[in-house]
Amino acid sequence: MSASHPRPPASSVNAAWQQRSVASVWHPCTQMQRMGEVPPIAIARAHGPWLEDHEGGRYFDATSSWWVNLFGHADARINTALKDQLDTLEHVMLAGCTHAPAVELAERLSARTGHALGHTFFASDGASAVEIALKMSFHSWKNRGLGDKREFVCLRHGYHGETIGALAVTDVAVFRDAYDPLLMRAHVVMAPDARQAAAGESAAEVAQRALAELATLLESRAGQIAALIIEPLVQCAAGMAMHDAAYLREVRTLCDRYQVHLIADEIAVGCGRTGTFFAFEQAAANNEPAIWPDLLCLSKGISGGYLPLSLVLSTGAIYEAFLDDDTARGFLHSHSYTGNPLACRAALAVLDRFDDEPVLQRNRETGALLTAALAARLDGDARIEHVRQRGMIWAFDVREAHAGVRFAERFHLAGRTQGLLIRPIGRTVYLMPPYLLNDEHVAYLAERVVATLNSVL
């Protein structure tokens, strides 16, 4: 949609679907009391980066629909794979059965780690994957005779999901505080968020301060700590807080030293979002051998935004700790739709795109164009700070003095009038678009983000 084609007003059809949704659907991450002021957009269809309402109004999906639609909507290759799978096998329980899509997906993901993470456990959503990783860590230590290792460490402002176990290692107050009485106690340590840099301090130096605090904790509680969980390179719900890759390398060293599992939550940052397929690939220094976490959680983009799917990749050491004739020493966690063939086939189609096309190289090229386009419009803007980018993630913070009341809500609503689906996190405006940007998309995004900023401020 060009600037010369303004969005049509809400029609009776759009309004009717909005009203029915507000009356019957309990929307996630939403204060329903505000739905009168912020009604949901009634989406009728989608293609590529565009969402379309019932009157033909279009919105650029600037957040990949909660960070999942890697290749946009109605991707022809994923569509074809799912249609073929529908005619073969839609579902079978993975307890006592197996099927080609699950086996092939596990094999191909393991190969992407050089088989360092050789075992895949399937689930349905990101929070479930985190719960599985926490349970695997504790139970494997217990099976090895180290049952006192039952504590977990997370980073300040980290986010890992909203089930009870995942919330225990989440440090985002708006999600956690209401349920705090129900949660186990986790250790919360300094995050390496580069925005914390003092005058003259580099991102690497901020990371060193965070590492020092972590080292002190691990030294004192190593006998009780089972695992540390982190979001590699970008803490997304913390406002796209980015950190130096060297932090990951040093964290791996500390976890090895104190016999603590390292869990990488790549639910949001995996599948190419940070510039490499797995964010943790960037942990290794130049020309050094790859290093990996003990457990890696993947979800969101792995199925291309089509079907719920998550998984946990594990080292052989953790897997082998559960091998025993005693059933109770096995890992008995289960989901009815574990390893669903349709979801796995969608994920295989996603991997096909990475294998057959220069996805990461193309992202680097188009990403540089969007970075330049945003810089041309935002450089020197005194209303904002901490302009940053990592792979296919862009963010800046609106200064507190300019943000005002309900900034995120006002920006979201203003974005709609500019043809954007965009949802700031607090004062952080961010973009996580699908991996299909062309020159026209780049110009559109940069222009409309700045126009939205100007209209709100």
Walk me through this protein's architecture:
The model is unreliable at 1-8 (pLDDT under 50). The chain is an alpha/beta fold. α14 (407-417) packs across α15 (439-456). The strands form four sheets. It has a seven-stranded mixed β-sheet, with helices on both faces. Strands 1-2-3-15 form a four-stranded mixed β-sheet. The protein is 38% helix and 15% strand. 44% of the residues are buried.
SSE diagram, text form:
Elements: H1 12-24, E1 43-47, E2 50-53, E3 58-61, H2 64-67, H3 76-86, H4 100-112, E4 119-123, H5 126-143, E5 151-155, H6 164-168, H7 173-176, E6 187-189, H8 203-221, E7 225-230, E8 234-235, E9 241-242, H9 246-257, E10 261-265, E11 295-298, E12 310-314, H10 316-320, H11 341-356, H12 359-378, E13 384-390, E14 393-398, H13 400-403, H14 407-417, E15 420-421, E16 428-431, H15 439-456
Parallel strand pairs: 3-15, 5-6, 5-7, 7-10, 10-11
Antiparallel strand pairs: 1-2, 2-3, 4-12, 8-9, 11-12, 13-14, 14-16
Helix pairs in contact: 3-11, 4-11, 8-9, 12-15, 14-15
Biggest sheet features: 7 strands, mixed
* Number of alpha- plus pi-helical segments: 15
The strand order across the widest sheet is 4-12-11-10-7-5-6
Helix content: 25-40%
User: In percent, how much strand structure appears in the residues?
Assistant: 15-25%
What is the level 1 CATH name of the largest domain? Alpha Beta
- The number of domains is 2
**First-residue to last-residue Cα separation:** 24 Å
Chain-averaged pLDDT: 96
CATH topology group of the largest domain = Aspartate Aminotransferase, domain 2
Residue runs with pLDDT of under 50 for 5 or more positions: 1-8
Q: What name goes with the CATH superfamily of the largest domain?
A: Type I PLP-dependent aspartate aminotransferase-like (Major domain)
Categorize the overall geometry.
Answer: globular
**What's the total number of strands?**
16
Q: Tell me the CATH architecture of the largest domain.
A: 3-Layer(aba) Sandwich
Helix/strand-derived category reads: alpha/beta
